[in-house]
Amino acid sequence: MMHARMGRWVTAGWVLLGVAGGIGVGCGSDGSAQEGPPGGEQAQIPVGAEDQERIDIGLRISPVPLKLEGLDRNLVGLGSYILNAQAGCSDCHTQPGYLPGGDPYQGEPEQINTTNFLAGGKPFGPGLVSSNITPDVQGLPGGMTFEAFLALMRTGREHGAIIPVMPWPTYAKMRDQDLKAVYEYLRAIPPAQPGMAPPPAP
């Protein structure tokens, strides 16, 4: 929403790189969705060696535990790599970003705030607050279906209005597969609540 918040997807203004490199979105050759094994992870999409390295890194660096049941492990891993190693989404969507004594910008060993990871709450000026993009009670990141998420990333619009700050023109250039990977990672992380905003400057 655009009243007391900046929109669902206020993110750091860093360039997201399209790195899926041949990873599909879980569709058959005719474009039909492929169902995964019941009760477990989806069937894994074949990937090349370079992509597999990114996937392995992504799964290793996720600061929060991942729920992979019903999801494609490869897409989740790639999404984690894009989000945690390239896009810096946590810079805007985690408040505070680091634990006390764990801010690498202060020369401290990095300790990410996992309690409020990607739960929003960071202020960006009057009426502008980053949104919670963790799964809702239905398991949808920020309450959005993939179709709604994809449309938002392609157009930068929510409820007909352009979302301020979010660098959607960059995201709009990404492949559907890359955005699907980001979405799948957001589905796999735990729900969380926003942290406390810092007090206003005197």
TrEMBL record:
Going by the UniProt record, its keywords in alphabetical order are: Heme, Iron, Metal-binding
One GO MF term, please? electron transfer activity
Q: Which InterPro entries match?
A: Cyt_c-like_dom (IPR009056), Cyt_c-like_dom_sf (IPR036909), Cytochrome_c-type_DH (IPR051459)
Quote the protein name from its UniProt record.
Cytochrome C
Domain Cytochrome c, chain residue ranges per copy: 74-190
Q: Does the keyword Iron apply?
A: yes
PANTHER family recorded for this chain? BLL4482 PROTEIN (PTHR35008:SF4), BLL4482 PROTEIN-RELATED (PTHR35008)
Q: Which domain of life is it from?
A: Bacteria
What's the source species' lineage? Bacteria, Pseudomonadati, Myxococcota, Myxococcia, Myxococcales
Is rRNA-binding a UniProt keyword of this protein? Answer: no
